[in-house]
Structure formats: C-alpha cells, structure tokens
Amino acid sequence: MDTTYDILIIGAGPIGLAAGLEAQRAGLSYLIVERGCLVNSIYNYPLNMTFFSTSERLEIGGIPFTSLNAKPTRAEALEYYRRVADSAKLNINLFEEVEHLQPEGEVYRISTSKGSYLARKVVVALGFYGIPNLLHVPGEELPKVRHYYFDPHYYYRQKVVVVGANNSSADAALDTWRKGADVTLVVRQPELGSIKYWTKPDLENRIKAGEIKAYFNANITEIREREVDIETRQGKVTLENDFVLAMTGYQPDFSFLEKIGVQLSQDEKRYPQYDPETMETNLPGVYLAGVVCGGMDTRVWFIENSREHAIKIVEHITQELQEEKV
Which keywords belong to this entry (predicted)? Predict the structure, then answer.
C-alpha cells in the first residue's frame, strides 16, 4: 500500500529544506521532492557570486552558517545547505519533477516524473530561477543569447551585450569586462537600478571611464548572428556582437500553480492567493512558502525573510492534524 506522508514539500531550495527541518522536529512524516539538484537556484548563480546578506541571515532551522567573510559566497552556501541536508538526514528525492497534484479522498496524490505519493498536506516551495523573463525580440532563440550567466572566462575577447540594470547585470558586465570581454550594457531605465553597494560605484566608474559602454533608456530590438540592434532616444544603433547576456530577471512557474488550482491575481503581478497567517492557499491543505508567494514581485521575499514561512506552515499543519485525530 502507498505510504501517506503528513507533508510533501515541493522544492529543495533553502525554504523547502527549512520546511523539512520543521516537519522533522514536529515529528511529522515528510518527503521533499526537487526537480533539479539540491538548492538548484543557488547552484545556477554565477560561479563567483557573493551574497548581499550575511551568513547568519541565510541560516535555516537554527543551524549555524559560518563563512570566511561577512558576506558568504555561492560555494559556501552550497556547502552549508549540503551539510544541513546531511546532518539532519533530510528525506529528499532529487531530479524528480512534480507533474500533477490532485485530491484523493482526504489526501492529495502527487504525481511525479518517477512515481506518485500520497500526502495529507502539501507545501509548494518553488523558487523563481527556472523561468527567465524573455526579451520577446527577433533572434532571442539564437544560441548566443543567454539568460543565465555563470563563468566570465567563456567571454574572453568576445563582444558582449549585457541587458539589465540590477545586480545580475552589474556582476556580469564587470566580471566579463575584467576577463577581457568588450562589454556594452543596455538599460531600459534612465539609470542603474538596485545594485550591491560595493558593486555600483565600480560599475559607474567603468562606464564613466568608457571601459564599459552603456546605453540608457534603450532596448534591444533585434538579435542576429553577428549583430544586435538597439533602439535609443537618438535612434537605432547597430553593434557588432558575439553574445547577449539577458539578465532580465526570472519568474515563478505560474503554469504549475494554475494547473494544480492555486488562484492567481489577474493583473500583471500574478499574486497567488494564500492566507499570510498560515500560508494556506485557496486549496485546503496546500501551502506556499518562499519567493513564490510574491508572484512577479520577486524582490519581496528572500531566504532571510521567508524562512519563517516554514515555521508558520508546520505549526498550522501540526495543529490541524492534531484536531483531525480528536
């Protein structure tokens, strides 16, 4: 017969792991299912990325996170979350994608790419790093266009256009320029956006010195094998180009939320419906945790302010399960 878990957690990012830790401490049976590797979003961050937050603000479950400097690196974060998973012996299935969720009597059946499970409650702790915001311009499908930036060495002696105004675009522009790329930054806004305080002056100085070219109030309108067209207030500019790094942000998997029945607002923000006190959605027994709660406002929730979701959720689930037994 099928095992029925108290909680099935979709997503093995930091908040999904936090939910697993809380379930374990509450004595609840649980399973975490993740379509990629452990903390898949962090794995896909740039190789040399440094977090804006300090290490203690990235801790989950009260397990200490120490780093060499005040701001931990991607490598240190990966090490920390691996050690959390191992030390707590968290029950995790990796590289297993959840395909559907449907009620079956008083429980939910969760169908995945490798099997199916029964659970009394479900926690959806999806990140937003898997689906990029597209430019929607001709040529975006070309292999030279990348929505993820990993290692600057790859772009040595290449003509690179970086699209965006925030942290990821600033890091990509500076890193690739320092490794020998000819970099042009294309920014839709009239100025740079929200950038780490130790990075922004560096980028501003590189632009002022002409070492990194920048077009503000500008948009890419077409991408070709060897060129890129940019629309500026002064008219169209055509640049020789080898690669486009479109650092235009990411979004949660709204299609999955809609498929399982979570209601979303009909405006551009696509806010999912949930109770902020319990994190329960319009689906009884289905909860949201982490950045997915913000819809398209992907800068509302971070590890440091959404790890409390795990505590709220497990407290509510524990209370409900106890009431069901009475």
Answer: Flavoprotein, Oxidoreductase
